[in-house]
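Dear Dr. K.,

Following up on our conversation at the group meeting, I've run the structure prediction for N-acetyltransferase domain-containing protein from Coniochaeta ligniaria NRRL 30616. I'm pasting the input sequence below exactly as I used it, so you can double-check it against your construct before we proceed with anything downstream. Let me know if the numbering doesn't match what you have in your notebook.
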Amino acid sequence: MWLRPQPQGQPQSWHDWFEDWRLWFDQVKTNLWFGRGGLNVKRYYIWKDAQAAVHSDVWKDPRGYYFLNIMTVLPECQGRGIGRRLVTAVTDQADVEGMPCYLEASKDVPNIPIYERFGFEFVKKLDCDHDGEKCTLYCMVREPRSTQKDNSETNAA
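The predicted structure tokens came back this morning:
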């Protein structure tokens, strides 16, 4: 699920506020439905605090970033280009708009090399520690590619 760019210092629109809450409720519902009823609220806030610190450090564009919040492809469906289409549907639009993209990968291998193929670059580790249980996420940023350059290369070929 991709989240739209939110300019720094600008209040959320009602639509974005509603979508944030809908996403939160959907995540709780999914966790309960699939047996993760013991969702640790304290860990959630540890992660959100760590995430906010990383964002203030690596998010340099005041217009915001397209944020790949979560993406999964069932193992039996992997290798069919589904993940590629889920990523490029937004990165292509981001290129047209000249907007950067951001994600937090849950594993360095194989995720970082996969996202590097789409132009993402590793920028920082996000460590969340709750009483000795550590979760590490790998923050990646993708700067927009010039669609004008891409079009001129296509026309020259």
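Two things stood out to me. Residues 14-33 form the longest helix (20 residues). The first strand starts at residue 2 and ends at 3.

Best regards,
J.T.
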